[in-house]
Amino acid sequence: MEPHNQTAVSQFLLLGLSDDPALQSVIFNLFLFMYLVTILGNLLIILMHHSCPVPYTLMVLRLSFCKNQEIPTFFCELAQVIKLSCSDTIIDNTMVYVSTSIFGGVHFSGIIFSYIHIVSSLLRMPSSEGKHKAFSTCGSHLSVVSLFYGTGFVVHISSATSHSLRKTAVASVMYSVVPQMLNPFIYSLRNRDMKESLKKLISRTASIV
């Protein structure tokens, strides 16, 4: 084999969107604005989501705890932490249940209100095929919502009434892991291409075995 001259390339040059200096400044300002909106918007979402735990953290800090420091689950659940306290936890438990009922009730009411309008709109659609596709989409979302709220309700009930460590741990898994795990399957298996790809994969695997 004849030797060839080769040059090792370690850098690449990005040409950008335009060579015009005046247009480059416009593009730079446009993308800077888009990035700032993206960062600030997501930061606002993070702050809003981490503002539904700050009062709970302050409540826990005022409590004193006994020697038993074992939490019967795999994450630091607030209800289980309060149970370990030697202090009077009436105020803490009341605030937890009240806030959970208010925020959970608002979210659930919003979902029900949305589905009432969605169903009423679907019933007025003339095409049966369109109705079937729309109901399929809504059914997938409703399955995820029902699984999330159902398991969350089980967790709170089991934490309040059950003293079994195994039941509490299982309920916590159902609430925090299972709904998120099933999300990709519920949404992706609705897609016709995904179903065909899955069938081909299963048939190929079966033929190899």
The SS-based structural class is mainly alpha
Order of helices and strands: HHHHHHHH
Can you summarize the main beta sheet?
A: none
The proportion of strand residues reads: under 5%
The low-confidence runs, each spanning 5 or more residues with pLDDT under 50, are: none
**What average pLDDT do the residues reach?**
76
Number of helices: 8
InterPro entries: GPCR_Rhodpsn_7TM, Olfact_rcpt
Family: Belongs to the G-protein coupled receptor 1 family.
Domain G-protein coupled receptors family 1 profile: 1-187
GO molecular function: G protein-coupled receptor activity; olfactory receptor activity
Quick tags:
209 residues, mainly alpha, 8 helices, Olfact_rcpt, transmembrane, G-protein coupled receptor
Write the layout of secondary structure elements.
Elements lengths: L20 H30 L3 H8 L16 H6 L6 H34 L4 H34 L3 H12 L1 H11 L3 H17 L1
Helix pairs in contact: 4-5, 5-6, 5-7
Membrane topology: Multi-pass membrane protein
Family: Belongs to the G-protein coupled receptor 1 family.
Organism: Sciurus carolinensis
